[in-house]
């Protein structure tokens, strides 16, 4: 923990970089400011708030937060010639020194430090009160988002709610899972009361009241877990209904429109991490393209491939499938058609994840498409699942919600299902709607289906050694070494 705390201590004096919100924001670095002279003006408050989004952009631009939800589930397969820690996640040989595990933890606590700075320091600044409260609301939303990620990956974690300014008293023990959820709930309840309904201009992409409500609905869904009688089902349904009733959000008519550059911050987005093509981009374009494919800058990296299990789960009529995957391409030099496969072991011939690829990019690792944290189709499926669970089976409203998502995908409406059949149908719909968007492992873990799903996906010699304790990742070893108050998760 001490090593992370050192990072946190100095995170606020690092350059902010470009925002995860709007490409139009003109940002200045914090590096030239000292603690004694900073956090004095409204401009300081705004810059400190933007710094939180800058960290979020850094966290999602590559694959650290996406990889466990893909290869540790049943949606993706890492190439065996790639990163050994990625392969270990896939085969369930994950150990506390795994770099992905360590990066998730350290990135989250760096982001939490930035949020804590805003929560503590901005209230003392003399400025417009509504704007001030909005900044603190954004900080609470982003802190809740980080703790939500941590509790799903690790279970109970240390709750750090104050700015870390020294290495005194940094040996913080793990809180319980419920204590973490209660902090998340408190932060989001506060945020939804002070955040605006929407932004305009260069501020589009910042956290809104709808984003806070939507995230809280998802938090309640996960908090309910496998408990069929949990009171959180009703709370999740009610909060999702609040988002629906806002009238702010809607589905794009075509699934492909969700991911178009021109639609960033559009009607389906509650919250997304934004990038700027060729300037402050992400690695989804180069990283996900077939290995060496000359259709993206520098050729594709081929980080991992699409599993046959996922690929074959899409019904023939599903309009999402051709948007989501690349199944062939034309070599721009030879003009030859290159078919791709879910069975061929050659990384250059693998079906690839494609919906976040930015073909306007001319610089490797600088795609501009957003990474969605929460969109309206998610709210609809949260509402459908939670309402059915709270009502001991699906009613007309639950069917309407899931069928809105299915209708856009070109699929027939559902009807006449039992409670369990409906729950299974929602889980499948979530897999097809959000694949490669950082949801699958979380969904399988919270519903108790992770072990069976992983054991069923054994292509390319996976032979996973998964056990019940693998519904959580290990606490990073470097944190345990630095903080004796931390206890390791069972089984590691």
TrEMBL record:
Main location: membrane
Endpoints of the signal sequence: 1-21
Location(s) in or outside the cell: Cell outer membrane
Pfam families linked to this entry: SusD-like_3 (PF14322), SusD_RagB (PF07980)
GO cellular component: cell outer membrane
Keywords: Cell outer membrane, Membrane, Signal
All residue ranges annotated as the SusD-like N-terminal domain in the record: 52-221
All copies of domain RagB/SusD, residue ranges: 350-492
Similarity field: Belongs to the SusD family.
Protein name in the entry: RagB/SusD family nutrient uptake outer membrane protein
Species whose genome carries this gene: Larkinella rosea
